[in-house]
């Protein structure tokens, strides 16, 4: 249904004035019944004209109608009736009170103009709010795209810092994650500080300062003036400055995972709409962090051995391919150790598979503790372990193998009933480029050397048989030790 505008009301009133001029009683100051009737008909026809499109012609001698009134919907007749009765009642009452027709029209116009002005004000305010809402939705969409574009946690932090502060107009921003075991918040991302790296090294206990209180209470805290709020702690050692500080929790499924902090240099600088927007952004960031952590955990489980927590065979072979390409390109040495627990089947048969699993876990911990960070240790299958030693020649690999053998031999193992049992290992060694020219041979040759170690009595380190060229080098360097096993030197 069309809106009744001032223009349409004015037309109705103009038609009414013209009609009254031709039909007004000369003597009586009051309207006669016939005039009431004619006003009713006139206003009704005008209303129908505005809503139904039927042509209407007002003349001094009467009314001419073009079109078919039967085409007008019933609801329009009812609307015309209601409007006509309202206007007639207003006119009659006003005439009885002594107002002229012009005064009546002016009062009606002022009333309608006042209502329209109020509606226009409401519409303008609504439009302004809609503009802010559209801008906020655009900001939320932009930030949502940046945080959902990656499932890597570090890249996620970078995307947040490079987008959120600029989009919202935040001068200082930090993102903290909770360490639930130690109950501390660690800064993982920072923006807008003069010394960003120093800020990234900060950590706060739960309950310490504003951020600690947010983590403890699980709700947002808005410090409108940090000079006047003693909860705000200045960890940079500077004089307490002016500004406002907003800290809100990052929750996922009712569990706190961190805190997001925003700062501005002016007091009371965050509006209610901005706070609501930042709360939505905080929820989105919390969801993205949870997804990134879940992905990292899933990926970690896919490359880890469930029993020992070491890398599994598939991941080891992937790393081996990468290291092989690097070693081949830069002509760097690379060695591989194949390790097997001696008489492990006997251990399982004698003490049970549960104790056997404990032996393997114990082995894994000892090996990890002994090796370098650049070395790659994996459970290759059953009781076999494999170690990749980048930038390590044959002699270096033999030394590492002997060190591992000696530590395992000296450490032994203690059963659940506190009974100690001996544990030893056999180690096979292969090396690039001395022993192999192809990647597949590196693992195969280490496996062959491992079987040689077992054939020689176990609990020893044996290299893959050297090539003739290497035998010549050995004869020229008689003092060089090639194999160390059980404290004996084999030349």
CATH superfamily of the largest domain: Reverse transcriptase/Diguanylate cyclase domain
Number of strands: 17
The spatial strand order of the largest sheet comes to 5-4-3-8-7-6
Q: Low-confidence runs (pLDDT<50, min 5 residues)?
A: 25-34, 52-70, 467-491
Topology-level CATH name of the largest domain: Alpha-Beta Plaits
The structural domain count equals: 3
The overall average pLDDT, rounded, is: 78
Q: What's the CATH C level of the largest domain? A: Alpha Beta
- Main β-sheet: number of strands, strand sense, barrel status? 6 strands, antiparallel
Q: Report the helical percentage.
A: 40-55%
What would you call the shape? elongated
- The whole-angstrom Rg is 44 Å
Q: Which architecture of the largest domain per CATH?
A: 2-Layer Sandwich
Give the percentage of residues in beta strands: 15-25%
Structural class: alpha+beta
- Helix count equals 14
Give the terminus-to-terminus CA distance. Answer: 106 Å
Question: What is the topology?
Answer:
Layout: H1 6-23, H2 33-52, E1 56-59, E2 62-65, H3 74-96, H4 101-148, H5 153-168, E3 172-179, E4 184-191, H6 196-200, E5 203-205, H7 209-217, E6 221-223, E7 244-252, E8 255-264, H8 272-303, H9 313-330, E9 334-341, H10 344-351, H11 353-370, E10 376-381, E11 384-390, H12 394-411, E12 413-414, E13 420-421, E14 425-432, H13 439-455, E15 461-463, H14 468-476, E16 483-485, E17 488-490
Parallel strand pairs: 14-15
Antiparallel strand pairs: 1-2, 3-4, 3-8, 4-5, 6-7, 7-8, 9-11, 9-14, 10-11, 12-13, 16-17
Helix pairs in contact: 1-2, 1-4, 2-3, 4-5, 4-8, 5-8, 10-11, 11-12
